[in-house]
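[Meeting: bench + compute handoff]

Bench side (C.D.) handed over the final construct sequence. Compute side (W.E.) agreed to return the predicted structure before the next meeting so the bench team could plan truncations. Sequence as handed over:
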Amino acid sequence: MKVFFLLVFAIPVAYLIVFILGRVRQAQIKNSLTLVDAKTQELKIQEHKDHHHTEAVLEQNSQTLSLYRRIDGSFILKIVLAIILSVVSFIISKVMSWEFSGSDYIVVVVMSMIVTIVLPSTLRAMYVRKRVKTLTAELPWMIDLLAVSIQCGMTPEQAFKFLATKMSGINPDFVPFLQRLVRRTEMSGLSNALYHFSREIPSTETRLFCAMLEQSLQYGSSLYEQLMDLSREIREIQLLTTEENIGKLSAKMSVPLILFFMFPVVIIVAAPGIMRAIANG
């Protein structure tokens, strides 16, 4: 009877949390629609979709991401995982001889539901953001290889096709994205393929790379020189970002220093005088 009561109480709470999260996501997308610039609006909506295009590509070669997506997309799986987590918690409480009241059991069930609802989507977003960050950091190396291939006499289409077959031994993370770019180039042209490539790896560096390639193809400038300059500029941007993060560390470290160093030192220095004053008084 208690288990039935817990389930009856937990399922409406879980539905309420899913409804609230959906409303928040819709509100974020509506706010992005108020932007004036259409290109910036499109980029904002893409960010609110949690790198949907990137996730679709990464999922093909990642069982972990596929598992996160299946759990996040199935409410029944979430309920089953919440029940398993609750049962495990109850077993641990019995083994450790913890005394739980009826309200404590309800809290455990509700917390299990919240964890199983929120955690899969959070892990999905964290995984995709980490992969995008890694791909963006290694983009200059791919640009260098592309520039060398073009300098050897290949066209951009041939260079991308060559890299799609050879990058597995250098950086396999780029392989599925380059393969999709090659297939789109064969079907609808390089310009459309570059547009989708910039959406599948959503970062400022990737957009600069695709925009530079389109301009070079349109105006006939030297691709090798442009690619090498872009690679150098992206490395400088990444270096400036790293230096900025290092500069922020001093301000961030001041908080734990004040909390865990200055206050104890003040207490240690002032405590003997305070204790003598109290004893004399």
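W.E. noted at the follow-up: Residues 2-135 form one domain. C.D. will use this when planning the next construct.
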